[in-house]
Amino acid sequence: MSYTSRISRRTTLKWLAATMGVSATTACGPERTTPQEDYAERMAKRKTLAPARPVSGTTYGYDPHLVEPALTWEKSMSQDQLDVAARLSDLILPADDRSPAASDVGVPDFIDEWISAPYDNQQYDRERFLALFDWLEQEAQEQFDTGFAEASVDQQKQVLDRIAWYGRVEDGLDTMAAAFRSFRDIAIGAFFASEAGVQDIGYLGNKPVIGPYPGPTPEAIEHLERVLTSLGLAMPEAKYLP
User: Fold this and answer.
1) CA-based angle 161:176:188, to the nearest 5?
2) pLDDT tens-digit map of 154-172
3) What contacts 38, CB < 8 A, 6 or more positions away?
4) Which one, out of 78, 165, 218, 220, has a CA that is 20 to 30 A from the CA of 92?
5) How far apart are CA 153 and CA 156, in angstroms?
6) Is residue 87 classed exposed, middle or buried when 0-12, 13-18 and 19+ CB atoms within 10 A define those classes?
7) 215 falls in which pLDDT band (50, 70, 90)?
């Protein structure tokens, strides 16, 4: 089944602003290498994913309007690539008794937004993620004679297991493994920026207090006192302003 968009551009742009710091972390270190093309010969013999459209548009500039973000670029991933991104996201964050799957909250839409943004870090991820999608597609076709998005979950896991685990990455696939780790970090960041993700972790903030501020609950005070005691610190004396 083809992936269909779940969320608006306004939502993906809000998530983009919330997760910009992830790229700065995951893009650091010796993993900045050119995607390997050791499977190029096999790709020529197999059906390939429809390519992404070229990146277009401009950056926000230095003073973006965060309440009403402008759409300064177009999303660029093809339907084939969105389908692969959806299946890959769901392997990372499947549905459970607490939350829906990653694709159900629009993580593939965010991935599309991310790699379509005309910023250096996002364009670096674009090169790696698109190469990763192609690799997953070709490996699924070679092993199971079906595309990655159409393969069974067990088949998808067999392909992904070659690059997904530290210390178990197959020879010659270090670059794809690094791309997957970055994809995973971005997908997780997007999921937990969604309403379902916020509920999953039990975040209770961003709620207005009507009337006078009641202060921390007795449970919170008790927890703080236990933590301070474990650190060898005394509970500070409460002081109230008149």
Assistant:
1) 70
2) 999 999 999 999 999 999 9
3) 172
4) 78
5) 5
6) buried
7) confident
Share of the chain above pLDDT 70, in %: 79
Which residue blocks in 7-52 are alpha helix, DSSP H? 9-26, 40-45
Q: How many CB atoms lie within 10 A of CB 156?
A: 22
Q: Which two tokens stand for residue 34?
A: 């050119």
**Block residue for tokens 């993993």:** 31
Distances (CA, A) of 63 to 69, 117, 125, 228: 11, 16, 24, 42
Rg (C-alpha) for the chain, rounded Å, is 22
pLDDT digits (tens, 9 = 90+) for 15-36: 676 666 555 444 444 444 445 5
Query: How far apart, in whole angstroms, are the C-alpha atoms of residue 126 and residue 112?
Result: 9
